[in-house]
Amino acid sequence: MSSFDHTTPHPERRAATTSSSSSVTTSGSNAGLAFVVGALVIVVAVMAWFMFGAGAADDSRDVNINVEGVPGAVEGAVEGVGNAAEAAGSAVNDAAQSVGNAAEEAVDGN
């Protein structure tokens, strides 16, 4: 009889083993982020100072605007809108009439 070694596994029956490792290193990203956030804070502070603080007690920025003849201009605009609406209504009516005539001619075969 032949001798068979039971301690050596068969090549097809060997368990496949795989090992992997990963490491994450971060360096320098926090400094860049801090720089960007700091720049944004400064920009917002400067904008707030210009909008709310600069010259708030200065009355030379008051502007008075007087418009004369507004009622006449409004009446003219209303009349113009009314005329445009009438013209649009007439155009729609004419278009509907033309479509109706074209449909009748198509049905009649002319």
Describe this structure in words.
Keywords: Membrane, Transmembrane, Transmembrane helix. By secondary structure, the chain is mostly helical. It has a domain of 39 residues. The protein is built from two helices and no strands.
Describe the structure in brief.
The protein is an all-alpha fold. The chain contains two helices and no strands.
Average pLDDT = 76
Tally of individual helices: 2
Percent helix: 55-70%
Name the helix and strand elements from N-terminus to C-terminus, one letter apiece. Answer: HH
Described by strand count, sense and barrel closure, the largest sheet is: none
Q: List unreliable stretches of 5+ residues.
A: none
End-to-end gap = 109 Å
By DSSP, the count of extended strands is: 0
Beta-strand portion reads: under 5%
Helix/strand-derived class?
mainly alpha
Transmembrane segments: 31-52
Keywords: Membrane, Transmembrane, Transmembrane helix
Region (Disordered): 1-29
Biased composition (Low complexity): 17-29
Question: Which terms would index this structure?
Answer:
2 helices, membrane, 110 residues, transmembrane helix, flat, mainly alpha, transmembrane
Write the layout of secondary structure elements.
Layout: H1 29-53, H2 70-108
